[in-house]
Amino acid sequence: MRAARQKLYWKFQIIAWCAWVTNETLLYINLFGWKWEWMISAVLNVIFGISITHYYRYLNEKHQWLNRKSSFVIRTQVIAIGGIAFLLTLFNIFIDHFILQTNFQMYLNAFYLLQVFFNFSKPVSIWILIYYFYQNSQKQLVMQRKNDQLELTVQESEGRILRAQMNPHFVFNALNSIKALILENPKKARESINNLSKLLRSSLLTERKKTIPLSEEIETIVEYLELEKIRYEERLTYSIEIQDACKNIQVPPMLIQTLVENGIKHGISQTIAGGTIQIKAVCKENHAEISVQNPGKLNEDILEDDKGVGLENSKFRLKLLFGDKAEISLHQLPNEKVEALITIPNINQEKL
């Protein structure tokens, strides 16, 4: 990036000074006729103009003049314009006397000297204004990039914190279930420990990712549900219907698992008969709809409880990743069922 800016700077220097000096040379040729000395004068002016403005750029970057107060910046630029124009005036008087062999006495005229001075003030003013606005735009761009990077870092940190809040729930539940199973059914307890091990490994790996394929999230959910079936036995059943087209769409890790956990907490555990957790995923043209259904009634207690580390955190995680393109909503369905519906952009691994 820096090399590209340097290349652009030198192109601007050479083209701008060559264009200005060419214009001045053509005016002199039109007034006084052709002389080879005009070409020598033009080349020397290009070299001197580039050198003096480049030195100004060096001093500016060394002392960071453009990063100071506005009054200082304005004063410095005015002085720079006057100083550079004055040096160019002296330089051209020298060239005219020793190379063009013109009458040196004519330059003792103050009016003519002022004319030459203001003539050179024009390209110098244009050069410094362009340089100032370019540097200022670059400064704003760097600041914006830093702000964007800071915002992204904050969002990633918030996402990790939110996921860390969600993970302990199912771990504690699973450990309690296995503890109760050890004496009753050691074989089943070993299988459950194996499921918990897979679940924890999956959880640790997904902590490092913003999104994972839906198929991986479903694997984690199945392991979680199998552990919960130890505790609820025949009271808990589940069904999963995922379209093949949806298996690779990207979802935040543990997001759907959290909704399943809420379904068990507010649905299965609240009734003696228990019920079924139903998970469905349907892919449409630009988005996917993922549904988690559980038995129960949607009431204020559930909504208030979900405002802790459940539903609100899930909404926030989606907002961080997808903005307004994703949402979660709760619905009361017939036959005393509650549905958590996730609408998410249809983004798969190949598109990321």
UniProtKB/TrEMBL annotation:
Alphabetic keyword roster: Membrane, Transmembrane, Transmembrane helix
Species of the source: Sandaracinomonas limnophila
Protein name per the record: Signal transduction histidine kinase internal region domain-containing protein
GO cellular component terms, semicolon-separated: membrane
Pfam families for this protein: His_kinase (PF06580)
InterPro entries documented for this protein: Bact_2-comp_sensor_kinase, HATPase_C_sf, Sig_transdc_His_kin_internal
Membrane spanning residue stretches: 12-32, 38-57, 78-100, 112-134
Residue stretches making up the Signal transduction histidine kinase internal region domain: 159-236
MF (Gene Ontology): phosphorelay sensor kinase activity
